[in-house]
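#structure-requests
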Amino acid sequence: MSGTNLLAILQLASPALPVGAYSYSEGIEWLVERGVIRSATDLEQWLRHELQYGSVQLDARVVRRLYGVMEQADPTALAYWNQWLSAQRDTEELRYQSWQMGNALIKLLKDMDLFPSWLTTPIQPCNYGVAFAITAYQWGISLADSLKIYLFSWTANIISAGIRTIPIGQTEGQKMLFRLHALIQEQSDVLTREAGELESCTIGLGLASMYHETQYSRLFRS
């Protein structure tokens, strides 16, 4: 791996990337309040399920497809997958999260003068998975590395939400993230080899997000 690519990977995976991911818990805050998630063990079980069967792995499968769209410079296909991602969100909260983060990343890419010149039709609102695929491709990051970044960043953000709400402490959070490295690697390897079927089991996430929208006291954005 070249030094330039490594730095691009670190920048895209950085929590300092100004997309606002830290302000969302994706239902974790409500699950903690209701006692569904009470410990680091509970949170890790939730993360393992989501990485294998949940919405994040579904998004990653779309990111995988979008790499081919970027290689073909196909704005029609890009718009299709953006609409598809919007339609598959279970709640308004999850939809607005994806749009807010995606629009923020697209703005950053434009401000850096790295937006693809062939994409002349605005994608508004832009889902985060679409914006991520565009950014990773434009920054010269390989598909395999892009998928790892996507899954890793999501996992790190949810662990951060758990640290602040359960709470479990920074050290326990880092230990959990390290334990999940193997699963993140495994999932990204599978997706790199083949896109697979577009399916997920997100009932728990959907219900948690619905209740979080009306939760009386919240740290996280709704």
